[in-house]
Amino acid sequence: MIVAAPAAKDRVKFNVGGRIFETTSTTLANAGRDSFFGPLFDENQSAGGGEFFIDRNPDCFAVVLDLLRTGDLNIPPNIPERLLYREASFYGVLDHVRSAKWGPFDGNRLRYSKSISGTAPGDGTAIRAAPDGGCAVAHGSIVHVYDWMLSEEHPPLTLDHQRVNDVIWVDPENLAVSACERLGRGDGGLGLFNKTSGRLRFKFQVTHDNQVKSFTAGALATAQNPNHRIFSSCKGRSNEYGIGVWDQFTGKQVDFFYESPGWSLGDADRLQWLEERNCLLVATLFPRKDNCYISLLDFRTKDMVWSWSDVGAPMTVDERRVRDGIAMEGNNAICVVNEYEDLGFMDLRMNGGAIRWSSRSRLIMKGRMPDDEPCYPKLALHDGGQLFSSMNDCISVFCGPDMVMTSRLRRGYGGSICDFSIGGDRLFALHSEENVFDVWECPPPPVI
């Protein structure tokens, strides 16, 4: 298609590393005002018919310019991706590159992208997706942090070289790591780290009867609204069993919800903050405990406002054991899964109600979890309303009001999936063997 030549005042000329490029201010506007090209939109920054000189790589600039023109990312084979990403970061268009590499998250459009082999001597135990598309993987007492390009690790994290129980991204630059207590030393507990430097910013403390106590920190959750809090299940040597709460910015303890007799909070497997209800879900599950306990805690009133347990329930068949649970606020329900990947639902509007097991969610090819690979099913919920469940070496996607299975993700390498996580428009699946994790992405939308 032939178009009229742009007005002279709309044309912009660059000399990049000795190579001349000519474009329009309309094209450069696609980069946004916060980019390198933003100041060019100001009249007093005009080149006055001349050209702007940039002492950077001209081949990469050509790719960036083409991306701004078409929205499509085409990387010639002679340009290393890391070099392009470095140059895109300089021009302030790294987000444009990421958006062009993979599309918005949809479980039914996910495609296998790559597998990453870890460097730790042992198998991984937990994986957490970062907001920017990177991830963190826990191996024993070490947490390995990968940038979004997955080609380079940041410095590894360790909290007093104690076994890591959970990891959570507080924001794109900082992670909280929970670890086991080391008796008599005060080691372990909970710490906040900077992902880039690996530096421990501060350790979170538990105070009981005006004394600082050592503790084992377990499951983690964060709440950005209203007060930027970090939650952790806690086990101490006296009666510091419960849920600790700290300020994300200062590291100061601001609350503690003590475990009541006959219930379980300090051994929790999962914590989840529910923004609409302003409550925290706490789930302690089999086999960590002989029975399962799921509750919602309101820290404003220090009340347990919803609870369910299988204590006293008849256990005639082992398949009814709950292995994981997650709240679905939009459905007023808590979804649970057993070892056969049957989904069950409990109504949040009815305290202590029975589980409604859904046969529609059952896989066509079911199979009990292998005895020699105790990777229990895990659940995850995406903002778009899709539910994900891992079982053996695959992940199932469930959609719709009845949560019907619509697709499965599977790779044959690495053994059973011991953990998975969704974030940054990616899904990461950590395998129990071979110290490897898979990356799943959605293809970018077609450029029209």
TrEMBL record:
Gene3D superfamilies on file: Potassium Channel Kv1.1, Chain A, YVTN repeat-like/Quinoprotein amine dehydrogenase
Record-linked InterPro entries: Beta_prop_At2g24240 (IPR057441), BTB/POZ_dom (IPR000210), SKP1/BTB/POZ_sf (IPR011333), T1-type_BTB (IPR003131), WD40/YVTN_repeat-like_dom_sf (IPR015943), WD40_repeat_dom_sf (IPR036322)
One Pfam match: BTB_2
Annotated transmembrane regions: none
GO annotation terms (biological process): protein homooligomerization
SMART domains named in the record: BTB
Pathway named in the protein's UniProt entry: Protein modification; protein ubiquitination
Occurrences of domain BTB (ranges): 10-77
Protein name as annotated: BTB domain-containing protein
Organism name: Linum tenue
Phylogenetic placement of the source organism: Eukaryota, Viridiplantae, Streptophyta, Embryophyta, Tracheophyta
